[in-house]
Amino acid sequence: MSGWWKSLQVGFTFIGTVVGAGFASGKEVMQFFTRFGQWSPLLILCATLFFVWIGSKIMLLAAEMKAASYEDLNKHLFGDKIGRGVSLVMLFVLLAVNAVMLAGAGSIFSEHLNLSYQSGLLITMFACFVLLRKGISAIMTINTLVVPIMILFTAILVFDTLGSPGHGRWMSFETDASLWAAGLSPFLYAAFNLSMAQAVLVPLGSSIGDPRVLRRGAWLGGIGIGLLLFAGHVTLAARMPGVERFDIPMAGIAREFGAWIHWIYVLLIFSEIFTTLVADIFGLTVQLQERMRIPRSILTAGLLIVCFGVGQFGFGPLLSTLYPLFGMLSLGWLFLMGRDRALGNGSPPAAPPTP
């Protein structure tokens, strides 16, 4: 049972790292899946297979190589020289994405809690710094708490949707979006999220080391991500096209349930931003420790200060500029992960072993 509990923690950490604020807001589900109408369930299934397959390979490779950080994985994929360059690019991009997360936390404080934007940044930075002093175990613990809340909230919305007149629209909703864009969508979504998630999946796989635990965790996490994507799609599709007018679609839906559900939603958005920020700052700190002989706490504080500076540009401008660019850059990385032969024949992982 201890092995299964650890696998569940791995799965929750996988889900919490991938399914961040973009999912909780409904924006990512709308952009990558729901807008493609009746094709969406197939696209979600495709993305789910990638999460199980590539997520498993990342963690198993990290365990096999005893990789200290994602740079070790990139050196394996691209070679020593190019791998260093790719890791350096990823360091700056991940740092920018963390600035987006921190800016999002500041926006929540200013828009929903009647506190200043700067107060939101500083409070979030302090909480992140304190938590990261406990290492990878703290990341697993916080995701074990946050992810079930997210699942519960999503389940409430889905059950309400199943009783609405438009509950079956996810099967019949038509779209004029191009088939080419639909076919590319799950690759972009998986590439973007998995390349970011390796910052925590690599040290997670290396620290646990047990292939059985990691395989089960990859299956639990990957399937969990797929089910959450599908649940979000069903909820959004039932309210199309009206829900498209909202910048944060799930917020518009949450208001249908009254004030207390709205506050749960606000807490959920902040929690997802916070877990993503904590996981990525941890991965970047581990990465920089390989390059610099500086204490971890000083590196963590330095990264948070840089994010604070970049976060002054605001959540919206940073999100719209950086995310699409990183998605395109990540496609090559996803291709190399898929064709890597270090774990047997490069095929998707076998079913999780029985205890």
TrEMBL record:
Keywords: Membrane, Transmembrane, Transmembrane helix. The lineage of its organism: Bacteria, Bacillati, Bacillota, Bacilli, Bacillales. It comes from Cohnella candidum. This is Membrane protein YkvI. The chain crosses the membrane at residues 42-65, 86-109, 115-132, 139-159, 179-205, 217-240, 260-286, 298-315, 321-338.
